[in-house]
Amino acid sequence: MYEDNASDTVIGVLREIRTLARDGAPGDRLPSVRTLVARHHVSPLTVQAAIRTASAEGLVDVQPGKGSYIAAPRAETPTADLSWQSVALGPGRQGEEVLSSLLAVPSEHAITLSSGYIDSTLQPVTALGAALARAARQPTSWERGPIEGRHDLRGWFAREAGGRLRAADMTICSGGQPALATAFRGLAAPGDVLLVESPTYLGAIAAGRDAGLRVVPVPADADGVRPDLLADAFRRTGARLFYCQPLHANPHGGVLATSRRADVLAAAADAGAFIMEDDWARGLTIDGTPPPPLAADDVNGHVVYLRSLTKVVAPGLRVAAIGARGVAGTRLRTARVLDDFFVAGPLQAATIDFVTSPAWRRHFTALRSGLHTRRDALLAALRTHLPHLAPSTPPSGGLHVWLRLPEDVDESALVTAAAAQNVVVFGGRPWFAAEAPAPHLRLSIGGAPADSYDDGVRRLSRAFTTV
Length: 467
Fold this sequence. Notes:
Elements: H1 7-23, H2 33-40, H3 44-56, E1 60-63, E2 67-70, H4 84-89, H5 96-103, E3 111-112, H6 125-136, H7 151-161, E4 170-173, H8 176-187, E5 193-198, H9 202-210, E6 214-221, E7 224-225, H10 227-237, E8 241-244, H11 258-271, E9 274-278, E10 303-308, E11 320-323, H12 327-340, H13 345-355, H14 358-385, E12 400-404, H15 411-420, E13 423-424, E14 426-427, E15 440-444, H16 453-464
Parallel strand pairs: 3-13, 5-6, 5-8, 8-9, 9-10
Antiparallel strand pairs: 1-2, 4-11, 6-7, 10-11, 12-15, 14-15
Helix pairs in contact: 1-3, 2-3, 6-13, 8-9, 8-12, 10-11, 14-16, 15-16
């Protein structure tokens, strides 16, 4: 049987092609697609994917109608001295290194317990591919569309938010991170204060600082941000913008309690401020029924609503929407123009096709089951191999388990030791806008196969013995 979706099979074919290119001579013909199919027991699509990769690496010269040949080596070029660039560019942007390390692709032998995306087996790639194919056949999808995005897609996001948001209030962005950058530029000026939950999404901290904002933390717990401390922070700092994740907050998984929602809205209203609601985890609830977005309770336009599909569908679906009523909505659309004008038409067309099809609901039924299995597998592994770290209350949704480490553990050393055991984890320090009260780890419950968690946590427990 062919295994078109198995990346390991592509790697196996690619490994042979690389060996042949290394040991052969330029111009030697490589085995045909048919030969490689028979040798590796894979499909022609898998072989062609491996050949394309080898061609991109400069190892193979593909000649249509003739076959594939070992490419001539590239001519050696003099060693360049690029050291002058460090002087010319000066210090790097704040948060750049942390985000890069979080998004780095691990080795094929590592078990990844740090991913912020769902595992490939949970992604509805067949339905997405069909939607994208249909979109590509629509001539209008290739034309320049409105800067704010397709009206039908904006309307869908507005309906999902509930409350008083309408299609005209929404702007389509190429993912949640660009939407955050747009919001911080559009709603604040360099030097302004940005309040954030503590801990919070490190990408929001980085985007705020990159926009020249002074990021100030407000303590949060399992029930979300504390309204009394939020009100104090507004009064003390004069802030006019507060970023929060009311549903399954990244990294700690907290959900804003029903008893706190009205007080949080009141704190913003009293301060004449905006709440930037990042609803990134809508669709990732495992237990129970999720509360509606905070935007659904907003009367006077204090909530700026952000919803991305990247985390809940697939990393390649870089589509999000940000919405606000009144002048704030106009400011967001203006700031959006400075990014990349508009999101690609075929991607928008494929998105509205997918989210309005039966495949959308089927995906979330399967996703909930898959996350439930993975969460329980991770918690069981923690109780077996690291019982002193296992949380007493499992997260009700989201993609992460937030672990507080013993005070004497150096989390950076632990992350390094875990990497030596071929398990990738991420420390807690970058998720705090100020000093971290204790060392932490953020482990993923969605980014790895269900049967890998026991081995991954076993490797992590070995790392503990070395720090």
